[in-house]
Specification:
Layout: H1 3-6, H2 31-39, E1 46-53, E2 55-56, E3 68-69, H3 74-94, E4 99-107, H4 115-128, E5 130-141, H5 148-156, E6 161-167, H6 171-177, H7 183-195, E7 200-207, H8 214-225, E8 231-236, H9 258-274, E9 278-280, E10 284-286, H10 291-297, E11 302-304, E12 307-309, E13 315-319, E14 324-326, E15 330-334, H11 338-345, E16 352-357, H12 360-375, E17 377-379, H13 380-404, E18 411-413, E19 416-418, H14 427-432
Parallel strand pairs: 1-4, 1-13, 2-3, 4-5, 5-6, 6-7, 7-8
Antiparallel strand pairs: 8-10, 9-10, 11-12, 14-15, 15-16, 17-19, 18-19
Length: 449
């Protein structure tokens, strides 16, 4: 690696699952604005839904998600009543106009729900919204939660994609992150969902965890590949103890340095690709026949808060505390506090407390950043044709970057701006060059690689 690229390994930049990113949301986008955006949805619009389950029965120390640990089920029961109330309110505002193309259950641990509650939640969604016949239903699965009854419940709600968190199979690493999960336990869940007709399985792996080495990461990848997942995600551990206090349980002396993290990521990626998977964007992989790989080859890949997706819906409605929705007009986020969220959605209320309305400049920069993150390239012709004068202004910035940046993070190839192969691991740093909020913002971010 060229020294000027190696120097960027420790840069802290956003993950760009949205633009503008969440630290720039503000209270000016509130429940009243959100209600207006919901009412403005048009007849025939296709939407996606994200449902957040903000509870786990055991807190993993590496996790940066909005969740809380509970050893009792009563808070979950109370939360589900609030979630059902929010679903009823939103369905009342959009029913008859929109159809659901995709649902994603995330958390926290969605599979912490009791089987009957899982089935009841699925039934409420089916009764409240119009679903397309080929709608996709994805669920994040915590293997430690799973039993035959929960597997049956997931099949009953129509799950089409199971996403399992693996992280690492090394017992020493698992102990350091408070997430013990054997390979055989993981295999049993994969086999269980396959037996119930689920056609797509995703495994999430991490590099950069405490005590991880190049050898241990490659061993985990090799074991994961024996499960024949349709997709794999290889994320860098985001150590953000100022944001998630429980990460202070991880001794920073146990963490690999920037060069070691980079080596882990590259070795793991190479091992996955060598098994016939196609690299998708920065950190995803898919079998050639998978919908994600097909979308990537067609230039139809997108990026949202769950990562890379083939979901083409312009509207994503977030349900539950801290959930973020995306609309033509901008982004909106619900109240993070579970208790306050419950009070806000009672009696037909909405829980939105912050967000951002998109300017023309935001739209063009967001398009560039998404294309860089998805395709490592964007077309100058598309830029100007889509965005006119606003696109022309960004074209000048792109040209200057391609022509004068000595690090060569971006190159001009015909009518396209392209990230060279050796610079692709640093695409988040490249995207940050187009982020007008980044330099002036005060938010702290995770390292780029």
């Amino acid at each position: 690696m060229r020294p000027e690229l190696a120097a960027r390994l420790g840069e802290n930049v956003p993950r760009y699952t949205s633009y503008p990113t969440a630290p720039h949301f503000h209270a000016g986008v509130d429940a009243a604005v959100y209600r207006g955006w919901l009412e403005a949805l048009e007849s025939g619009d296709e939407i996606s839904l994200y449902l957040h389950i903000p509870y786990c029965d055991k807190l993993c120390w590496f996790c940066a998600c909005h969740t809380k640990q509970t050893r009792h089920y009563e808070p979950v029961t109370a939360y589900l009543r609030s979630l059902h109330a929010e679903i009823a309110t939103i369905a009342g505002l959009v029913s008859g106009k929109v159809r659901v193309r995709a649902i994603h259950f995330g958390g926290g641990s969605p599979t912490m729900l009791k089987p009957d509650d899982m089935v009841a939640l699925g039934a409420v969604l089916q009764d409240s919204f119009d679903f397309l016949l080929d709608a996709k239903i994805s669920v994040e699965i915590e293997p430690n939660d799973m039993d035959e009854a929960r597997l049956d419940a997931l099949a009953e709600i129509g799950m089409t994609r199971a996403s399992l968190g693996v992280q690492d199979f090394d017992p020493k690493v698992q102990k350091a992150i408070n997430r013990e999960q054997s390979f055989l336990q993981t295999k049993a869940v994969v086999d269980g969902v396959r037996l119930r007709g689920v056609g797509s399985v995703n495994l999430d792996l991490l590099y950069g965890l405490p005590h991880q080495t190049k050898e241990s990461v490659c061993s985990t990848v090799a074991q994961a590949l024996t499960l024949e997942p349709d997709r794999m995600a290889l994320f860098g551990y985001a150590h953000v103890p100022w944001f998630k206090k429980h990460q202070t349980m991880i001794d920073e002396a146990w963490l690999p340095g920037p060069a070691e993290r980079f080596a882990q990521s590259q070795l793991a990626a190479r091992a996955i690709v060598d098994k016939g998977y196609e690299a998708i964007g920065l950190d995803h992989f898919a079998k050639p026949g998978d919908a994600l790989a097909i979308a990537a080859r067609a230039g139809a890949l997108h990026r949202n808060f769950q990562g890379y997706t083939e979901d083409r819906c312009e509207t994503l409605i977030g349900l539950g505390p801290s959930s973020i929705g995306r609309f033509r007009q901008g982004y909106v986020q619900n109240m993070p506090s579970t208790a306050e969220y419950g009070r806000m959605v009672a009696d037909g209320g909405l829980a939105a407390v912050r967000g951002i309305a998109l300017s023309d400049d935001d739209r063009v920069r967001g398009w560039i950043i998404e294309r860089l993150m998805c395709d490592f390239a964007f077309s100058a012709i598309d830029l100007v044709e889509r965005f006119g004068e606003a696109g022309q202004k960004l074209l000048l910035q792109s040209s200057s970057m391609a022509l004068h940046d000595p690090v060569r993070l971006l190159e001009l190839d015909g009518d396209s701006f392209v990230v060279p192969d050796e610079s692709r691991p640093f695409v988040r740093s490249i995207a940050a060059k187009f982020d007008k909020y980044f330099e002036s913002g005060t938010a702290r971010h995770s390292v780029a690689v």
